[in-house]
Amino acid sequence: MSELLIDVRGLRHTYMPGTPFASIALDGVDFRLESGETVGVVGSTGAGKSTLLQHLNGLYRPQEGEVHVLGRDLRDPGQDLREVRRSVGLVFQRPEQQIFSQYVGDDVAYGPRLLGLAGEALRERVRWAMDLVGLGFLDYKDRLTWTLSGGEQRKAALAGVLALQPRVLILDEPTAGLDPQARLGLLDDLRRLRAEGLALVVASHNMEDIALLADRLYVLQGGRVALEGPARQVLSQGERLRALGLDAPPVVNLLQALRDLGVSVGGDSLTLDEAEEALAAWLDGRRSP
Ligand SMILES: Nc1ncnc2c1ncn2[C@@H]1O[C@H](COP(=O)(O)OP(=O)(O)O)[C@@H](O)[C@H]1O
Ligand SMILES: [Mg+2]
After folding, report:
1. Cα(50) to centroid of ligand 1, in Å?
2. How far is Cα 279 from Cα 281, in angstroms, rounded to an integer?
3. Ligand 1 and 45: CB distance under 6 A
4. Domains of the chain: which residue ranges?
5. How far is the CA of 53 from the centre of ligand 2 (A)?
6. Tell me, what DSSP letter sits at residue 265?
């Protein structure tokens, strides 16, 4: 049975309130995450994605509205937010913002060490987290963090968060700035974590990434939820997405262009693999009338 892990209602957030620079980043957002789900948060730059994500692990307390995380009401000033931050891991947009140590192994150990792990238990936890993201423990533990490539840095940051064994993993623009191979590697890691049952929240403006990962989507615009629903349903609305400053995944646009040319390819493919199947089915249909 699925369990409601995060429940956000009517959340508002203003940066620098009460000053001439006040800016409303969230303007009444409702958001839910159930166990086992991967939820995408999409929207153009400035839509409020990062601000929302930082509420989900207690980095911000709600100014207005409600945020419930794993049964804790984050409005309650007596609530210990450390437990929330441990259970809900947040990988920042720029991984260098969360690399604390000179050596990769120490960096991944940073969080679990603060939790009190030491000795062999700590070593095993670090090994487990590094293996999970494909940074082989023996190969990488003594590497200097600043010598890692962009993709490896992001994996090290991800391993550092996973080492806390969170129940929810939140990633802000996880593939931004990665080269194509590193991007595919990271997406593979995330799909593996999802398959293992970890609940994920992924903010991105890369609709292809979202198509490959998300079950359900929230589209933000100007701090409000402009559109939400199953990923397949939201991503097939090309016109609507373009009006919100986004676009459908390239595959959706390609198949639409083919249909406009009279190719009666069916289905609602979101990914290249799905499109390949749909096109093969269309070809088969033509060969055997
Ligand atoms: N630290 C901050 N101080 C002031 N304004 C901010 C700050 N962070 C974000 N904002 C503003 O809040 C709005 C939402 O930003 P953000 O949540 O970063 O959106 P996104 O992640 O979708 O690009 C934007 O208008 C942005 O300029
Ligand atoms: Mg952002």
Report:
1. 7
2. 5
3. yes
4. 4-248, 249-289
5. 9
6. -
